Amino acid sequence: MFMTEEKFTGGESGRSLRAKGRREQILDAASECFVREGFHGASIARISKLSGMSPGHIYHFFDNKEAIVKGIVERMVVRWLELLQPYPTNLDVVPLIAERARIAATERTRPDFVGLWLEVLAETARNTAVASAVHEADRTIRVAITEQVRYIRAARGVRNDTPIEAVIEVVLGIFEGLTNRSIANPDFNCRAVDDVMMVSLRAALEA
Amino acid sequence: MFMTEEKFTGGESGRSLRAKGRREQILDAASECFVREGFHGASIARISKLSGMSPGHIYHFFDNKEAIVKGIVERMVVRWLELLQPYPTNLDVVPLIAERARIAATERTRPDFVGLWLEVLAETARNTAVASAVHEADRTIRVAITEQVRYIRAARGVRNDTPIEAVIEVVLGIFEGLTNRSIANPDFNCRAVDDVMMVSLRAALEA
Questions:
Q1: Which domain holds residue A175?
Q2: For B52-87, where are the alpha helices, taking DSSP H only?
Q3: Does B52 lie in the same domain as B9?
Q4: In chain A, how many domains are there?
Q5: Which of A169, A189, B10, B155 is most buried by its number of CB atoms within 10 A?
Q6: Cα–Cα distance between B130 and B74 in angstroms, integer?
């Protein structure tokens, strides 16, 4: 299981809900800090100031900055899993895939997401704790998308020997690629590339 | 023009060549520092130690860390332009595209490239000097790839209204995506995704 038990375990549900709210507040503030100052520049003191919570309060929820990154990455997984929910059966899946793909592309090219995700990936290259969180998250996403791709391939009558792992890498890669393009090209326009993205995505799904 | 005049202008060619060698040495050392410690962690002092050159010597070539990043990004552009050289005419371009695409995919998923490029992109999100270098580099690459894509589309008999800018974003995005996938999934294997990548790439080129 990817989701780890919360360090904070609220007694009654109201307390638990408030804790969840405060935990989210810390993750929001930390995300902003990481984008602005980078993982190394962002200190617990700065996150404390931005979230309006004391460092002690932050340490109540998270052991260190790596644990905060893990929390941020887990939120991204939750979003992917929402977009990878099973499709209703007996429907043409193509328009449904297209709709969700457009949502994913839009969300993953928003400046706040882009800055945060690139910072997390850059840190993955040099920080084993962050790498472990990202790799675990990625495994969860790959499991979910494997089921979806199997379903789509069956629904589309695709029957061949192309390894599903390769299809998934290219499918996930297409979204990752748009993230990078949106920062490398200041004139990048997600809407304008939608149609070509869908053509490429379908080709990979039917490869 | 993307390539800026060198700060160092060697007198005779031997001196100029040695300067080029020393400049490359600084870029190599800085690249390693950025990957290991991030842009902010990497100091001129650290780059000096790793390159075996004095800080004064480094400042002789580069005004600041941003100028070093610009130098690093310019080297990446040179490589893209090599891979985007015109194809020989009267030949089936598909195998030629496939060959170059495989080379690009392999190079852009090597750990040293991945760590460096992600650090540069993350810094692009918060540093206007780095952003300006990356955006200028990207413009140069887009100009070169536009010519290539026009040529490929003509050679393949593709005639439609799909904006070439959208095709280029998806094509470049496919390579960018593999970079990110190679770090998010520790089991990523570039060779294994080659074929699906080519299917997606061709679909985008013929969209």
A1: 65-205
A2: 55-61, 65-83
A3: yes
A4: 2
A5: A169
A6: 12
**Chain A, nearest residue to B42 by Cα:** A40
* Alpha-carbon dihedral B174, B180, B184, B188, rounded to 10 degrees: 50
Partner-chain contact A169 B193, CB within 8 Å: yes
CB contact under 8 A, A170 and B200: yes
Q: In one letter, which amino acid is B157?
A: G
Please indicate, yes or no, whether residues A104 and A143 belong to a single structural domain of this protein.
Answer: yes
Q: How far apart are CA B13 and CA A10, in angstroms?
A: 72
DSSP secondary structure letters along B132-172: HHHHHHHHHHHHHHHHHHHHHHHHTT--S---HHHHHHHHH
Of B118, B116, B71, B105, the closest CA to residue B193 belongs to B105
CA distance B194 to chain A (A): 8
A85: which 2 tokens? 């929910």
Of A41, A135, A200, the CB nearest to B203: A200
Same domain, B176 and B78: yes
**Among A31, A130, A175, A183, the residue to mutate for chain B (most B Cβ within 10 A):** A183
Q: Which of B142, B174, B186 sits opposite A200 (nearest CB)?
A: B174
Q: Which whole-number Å values give the CA distances from B78 to A87, B116, B171, B178, in the listed order?
A: 45, 16, 18, 20
Do A173 and B172 lie within an 8 Å CB cutoff? no
Query: pTM of the full predicted structure?
Result: 0.89
Print pLDDT tens along chain A (207 aa). 344 444 444 455 777 777 779 999 999 999 999 999 989 889 999 999 999 999 999 999 999 999 999 999 999 999 999 999 887 777 777 888 899 999 999 999 999 999 999 999 999 999 999 999 999 999 999 999 998 888 888 888 887 789 999 999 999 999 999 999 999 999 999 999 999 999 999 999 998
Looking at CA atoms only, how far is residue B126 from chain A in angstroms?
6
Residues of B in contact with A192 (CB under 8 A): 163, 165-166, 169
User: Which positions in chain A touch B167 (Cβ < 8 Å)?
Assistant: 196
- Distance CA(A140)–CA(B100), nearest Å, equals 33
Q: Which CATH number goes with the domain that contains A21?
A: 1.10.10.60
Residues B89 and B123 grouped into a single domain: yes
B138 to A173: CB separation less than 8 angstroms, yes or no: no
